[in-house]
Specification:
alpha+beta, Alpha-Beta Plaits
Length: 107
């Protein structure tokens, strides 16, 4: 048996300024480079408030996540994102203890 991957990541609750969704998606799409160990990113738009997004990003390990999160490129991107937010994001970092992915989501 192979060694299990200790998946790790974050869930962020972000309150966007009205009309900022397209711009923030462009900033997030620009983060595809330099993401060693990246497994997946999902963005949920809240039914209760379409300006609230929940962003889940998963990496192969805590070390890979921290390397990405602490990178100069991600810090720059985060400052760009902050200009599009109505409030400070809520971050919830942790180990993924269960996952069950069946199909890829379509836009």
């Amino acid at each position: 048996m192979g060694e299990e991957v200790a998946l790790y990541g974050t869930i962020a609750k972000m309150k966007l300024k009205p009309g900022a969704e397209e711009k923030i998606m462009q900033v997030m799409e620009g983060s595809t480079a330099h993401r060693e160990g990246h497994v997946a990113t999902y963005v949920f738009k809240s039914d209760a408030d379409p300006n609230v997004h929940f962003v889940t990003t998963i990496f192969e390990s805590k070390g890979a996540y921290k390397k990405f999160a602490d990178s100069t490129d991600q810090t720059k991107r985060f400052h760009q994102m902050q200009e599009l937010l109505a409030a400070e994001p809520e971050w919830h970092d942790g180990e993924v203890i269960h996952h069950d992915t069946k199909v890829a989501a379509a836009h």
